[in-house]
């Protein structure tokens, strides 16, 4: 089992749609969690951290389920500009940052 | 504030040649990382460093060496480049501890022919 797994997609949705991505991690000692966004031929950039209580930033909502070891990202009212690859990142005990392979989202008009 | 800077941005190497990628950060971060990203493989950790003078192996360290002689710099070396090392290389840094934002450089595109 991969340490961090994501559905690679692609997810093709129309503008205005709601889309959800899931990510599972295998190490129960993992301590912190993030969603990063990566545009084509660019470096990954932080989208949001994921907290145990769940957190929201505008149209984006992140959830963490420690018991089931999965993280989710919900995007409401999708925009064309949301088209990108979304990376799930898990910080395990110590300093290792483990990335999922990413989920590709394509939003069309 | 430049953040994380990688040089060179693009490079073509012949098989067997050596080269060094330089990563510099001006945020006084303790932790620095080198990743490679290949199609369908995601970001894979090559080596990392938790402080000046320390380095550790990541998931795919073979064929690479690193050095962290100064806190702000993290060098990635290829002693004898192979076509399998054709990739995009990203350097990243973060403050000590967990839960901190990771900052990436813009990437270095390396082709080995």
Report what the structure shows:
The complex is a heterodimer of chains A (about 110) and B (about 110). Chain A is an all-beta fold. Helix content of chain A is about 0%, strand content about 55%. Chain A has no helices and eleven strands. In chain A, the strands form two sheets. In chain A, strands 2, 4, 5, 9, 10 and 11 form a six-stranded mixed β-sheet that branches. In chain A, strands 1-3-8-7-6 form a five-stranded antiparallel β-sheet, with no helix packed on it. Chain A is globular, with a radius of gyration of 13 Å. The N and C termini of chain A lie far apart (about 35 Å). The mean pLDDT of chain A is about 90. The N and C termini of chain B lie far apart (about 35 Å). Helix content of chain B is about 0%, strand content about 55%. Chain B is globular and about 40 Å long. Chain B has about 110 residues and is mostly beta strands. The interface of A and B includes residues 31, 34, 42, 45 and 98 of A.
Brief synopsis:
The complex is a heterodimer of chains A (109) and B (113). In chain A, 0% of the residues lie in helices and 54% in strands.
């Amino acid at each position: 089992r991969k340490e961090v797994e994501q559905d690679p997609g692609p997810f093709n949705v129309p503008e205005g749609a709601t889309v959800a991505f899931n990510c599972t991690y295998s190490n129960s000692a993992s301590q912190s969690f993030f969603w990063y966004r990566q545009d084509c031929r660019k470096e990954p950039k932080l989208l949001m951290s994921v907290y145990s209580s769940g957190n929201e930033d505008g149209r984006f909502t992140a959830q963490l389920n420690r018991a089931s070891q999965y993280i989710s990202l919900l995007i409401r009212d999708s925009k064309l500009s949301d088209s990108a690859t979304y990376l799930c990142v898990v910080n395990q005990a110590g300093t290792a940052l483990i990335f999922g392979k990413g989920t590709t989202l394509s939003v069309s008009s | 504030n430049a953040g994380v800077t990688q040089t060179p941005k693009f490079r073509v190497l012949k098989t067997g040649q050596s080269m060094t990628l330089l990563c510099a950060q001006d945020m006084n971060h303790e932790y620095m990382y080198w990743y490679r990203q290949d199609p369908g493989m995601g970001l894979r950790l090559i080596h990392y460093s938790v402080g000046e003078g320390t380095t550790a192996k990541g998931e795919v360290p073979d064929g690479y060496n690193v050095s962290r002689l100064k806190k702000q710099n993290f060098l990635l070396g290829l002693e004898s480049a192979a076509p399998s090392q054709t990739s995009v290389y990203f350097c990243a840094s973060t403050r000590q501890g967990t839960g901190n934002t990771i900052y990436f450089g813009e990437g270095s595109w390396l082709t080995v022919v």
